Amino acid sequence: MTLSVSTGRAVDLRVQPVDRVLDRVERSLGARLLPETVVRKRRSVGARTDRHTWVRVERRSLDKIPDQGWNGTESAARLQGIAQPEWLGCVVWQERDTDDPAMWRADETELLPGAPVGNAIVSEAPELPDTWWEALNASLDALAAQQTGRVATPDTVTITQDLVTGSIHDVFSDDVHTTVERWAPAHADLNWANMTAPTFSLFDWEDWGNAPLGLDSASLWASSLAVPALADRVRRERRSDFESRDGKVMTLFTCSKILGPHAHPEDPRLEPARSMAEQVMKELQVR
Question: Domain tally for the chain?
Fold first, then answer.
């Protein structure tokens, strides 16, 4: 594969040519990708196959691959008690002849049991039965109770105490106490585009690993803020996370991403995030 990218140029697979990449995936996996099903995102491309499975192809720069590797979907296959598509196999290769060294990975899984609930950030409330919320809670609780040596990489950045503290203090007061007390396994990219309905299933496990308790709940809340009733439902369903000290830190952490230097002035989440941040800061400010 010879996708040429100049140094410093961001790769966006929504616009970059990927035909030769997909040809290589087909040859390696021995399956045909159905062109009419191709879904292109910024750093991944997915498609159904002629054997009724799903293939997700991701490109990642070498400096975005941590020491633990980037086999999140593969390693998540051993997790118990979580509704997720079964992992079937993969192919990995390095992109050599380019100014921006990178790795490609294609993971094949069973098909999802339904369509994604919505976009990463929703503008209207999805219709979800109580059984869906019960399945969400069961999966997140089961995930947090397990053990792993992986460290979560939300937005492909390894999460650390320094990252949490720096992100919060860059946007809010330095007086806010940000020390994380409990770390637990998290999906680390929990939003409405990575879950299905009406049958609940959680997918795209590339970034999962240990993270501050409450990261997933806070991330889902943040992606719901444009719909206040939905954001409130998330807080009710995941109340134990939000009421914990670490959950409050993660709420502030997600607010810092919304309100930080790259905030869009027309983002409907700005005001509710600012209001919640002010409330949480009062609860965390005592060192």
Answer: 2
Residues 73 and 168 in one domain: no
Same domain for 149 and 46: no
Range of the domain at 53: 19-111
11 domain-assigned: no
Residues 161 and 63 in one domain: no
Q: What is the CATH number of the domain that holds 154?
A: 3.90.1200
Reported pTM: 0.90
- Does residue 180 fall inside a structural domain? yes
- The string of pLDDT tens digits covering residues 255-283 is 999 999 888 888 999 999 999 999 999 98
Provide DSSP, the chain: ------TTPPP-TTTS--HHHHHHHHHHHT--B-GGG-EE-SSEEEEEBTTSEEEEEEEEEGGGS-TT-S-HHHHHTT-SS---PPEEEEEEEEE-SSSS-EEEEEEEEEPPSSEESS-SS-SS-----HHHHHHHHHHHHHHHTS--S-B--GGGS---HHHHHHHHHHHS-TTS------EEEE-S--SGGGBEESS--B---TT-EEEETTHHHHHHHHTTTTSHHHHHHHHHHTHHHHHSHHHHHHHHHHHHHHHSTT--TT-TTHHHHHHHHHHHHHHH---
